[in-house]
Design brief:
With about 450 residues, this protein is mainly α. It is built from 19 helices and no strands. Helix 3 packs antiparallel against helix 18.
Length: about 450
């Protein structure tokens, strides 16, 4: 039974009554195709996001926010990076309402289209030198639209895969879209590194930074074609067919369908708060590694750009390699034990991981990043199923999206800004480790307060 608004956070985290771990109508015959479609979408969305993050670290500061002070330019560029996180909650409301009312697939098609248009738009923008103040205004506007899109992407992709999953494999299928962030980063690196090598740093700064943004158009066309050919979630279809007009006036489902976020906040505040905290540390690890350190290493420590990109890419590839095996294990032993192990490891490893930057040695940094992103996979891989299982089907799109996006905003969106300020006060990469380790400790405590969700009834 859902909690009443008066229940405490701890009480709100109690597991729901259980029946079967998975429904036999979960659409298992279509699950692989749906999982692939979800992966393609999240890969494209995070490619767009990674391209922007890398461009922020390399070129967007001086191109759109010229300043005699490099730190000020970097802060301005990272502020536009953070702006997209501020608009993500709007995406949760918009696409969560669409996903919980009209279907997961419709929301996902709309979010991917919006992201593609915004990303290509960035590639076409004039710089400050050409358009003056209009240039940064347009950049921030497109960045906000990217954030709205991301607010609806992750939750919908995870749910479409999880709600099609065969019995006993919900964590595995839900984790497939979770490969998308690292895969998107690797894809962006595969475009940016050759471009840098071909045209040089000056050519990239002058014009070639636009190439990765414009190439997004091709990826979006492919993603839209794939997503429009998959079936709707069977869990959503079963729920929608059960909500007849005659039952609507007195039913909770009708109340939820009008404004899912309002009902979520009224009935499940504890799960939302703790679910957000459980994911906040992993978000910090991800964004400080693949966004901030790409700027910090070369500019503050003199580490070659290619060294930093290679270290982050190898670490991301290692995370991809273990994501699905970790998820399969989570289907057997539960989500919480693996997430707890990842959180403990991240708390311990955060300082050595970022401390490796002080060595300037590419092999040492790559090894440290590989271990760190491997520990992230322990937290991140089961989190897809874990967050989805915290909420009932009628609120699942909004609930899972809200928890994940709030964690991304608090732990990741402002991480480059906070890290830039911290390093302006204490010139040591160790401060990144203490900051990240503190957020991972928050995740550990929230996970300890939450129950295991593997046996929760996913059709209710």
């Amino acid at each position: 039974m859902p909690e009443s608004p008066s229940r405490t956070v701890a009480e709100a985290a109690e597991p729901r009554p259980v029946s079967l771990p998975d429904s036999p109508s979960a659409g298992s015959s279509k699950a692989p195709r749906v999982a692939a479609a979800s992966l393609i979408g999240t890969t494209i969305e995070y490619y767009d996001f990674a391209v922007y993050g890398t461009a922020s670290a390399l070129v967007l500061g001086p191109a759109f926010f010229p300043s005699g002070n490099p730190t000020v330019s970097s802060l301005a560029a990272f502020l536009t990076f953070a702006a997209a996180f501020l608009s993500r909650p709007l995406g949760v409301v918009l696409f969560g309402t669409i996903g919980d009312r009209l279907g997961r697939r419709r929301a996902l098609v709309a979010s991917l289209l919006l992201m593609g248009l915004a990303t290509v738009g960035v590639g076409l923008l004039p710089t400050y030198e050409t358009a003056g103040l209009l240039a940064p205004v347009l950049l921030v506007t497109l960045r906000l639209l990217q954030g709205v899109s991301m607010g609806g992407e992750w939750g919908g992709a995870v749910l479409l895969a999880a709600e099609h999953a065969p019995p006993g494999r919900r964590a595995l299928y839900a984790a497939v879209p979770n490969v998308g962030p690292s895969l998107g980063f690797l894809l962006s690196t595969a475009v940016i590194l050759p471009t840098l090598n071909i045209v040089g740093r000056d050519g990239f700064t002058d014009w070639a930074w636009r190439v990765p943004f414009l190439l997004s158009a091709v990826l979006v066309v492919v993603g839209l074609w794939v997503r429009t050919t998959v079936s709707e979630s069977p869990v959503f279809q079963d729920r929608a067919s059960a909500e007849t007009p005659k039952a609507a006036p007195a039913s909770l489902s009708t109340e939820v369908s009008r404004f899912p976020l309002g009902t979520l906040l009224a009935r499940y505040p504890g799960r939302l708060l703790l679910g957000t905290g459980a994911a906040v540390g992993g978000s910090a690890v991800y964004y400080l590694t693949i966004v901030y350190s790409l700027s910090y290493g070369p500019k503050s420590l003199g580490i070659p750009q290619n060294t930093m990109l290679t270290a982050a890419s190898v670490g991301a590839a290692a995370g991809i390699a273990i994501t699905l095996p970790v998820a399969r294990l989570a289907d057997r032993v539960g989500r919480r034990p693996l997430m707890l192990a990842g959180a403990v490891g991240s708390v311990v490893w955060a300082v050595p991981m970022y401390g490796s930057l002080s060595t300037g040695n590419g092999f040492v940094i790559t090894g440290a990043y590989t271990v760190g992103l491997g520990l992230l996979a322990l937290m991140f891989s089961p989190a897809a199923a874990f967050l989805a299982e915290l909420f009932p089907a009628r609120l699942r799109y909004t609930g899972a999206s809200a928890a994940f996006i709030l964690a991304n905003t608090l732990g990741g969106g402002f991480a480059p800004l906070v890290a830039t300020w911290l390093n302006s006060q204490w010139s040591s990469p160790l401060v990144l480790g203490f900051y990240t380790g503190g957020l991972c400790l928050v995740s550990l405590l929230c996970l300890l307060a939450l129950p295991e969700t593997r046996e929760n009834d996913f059709t209710a």
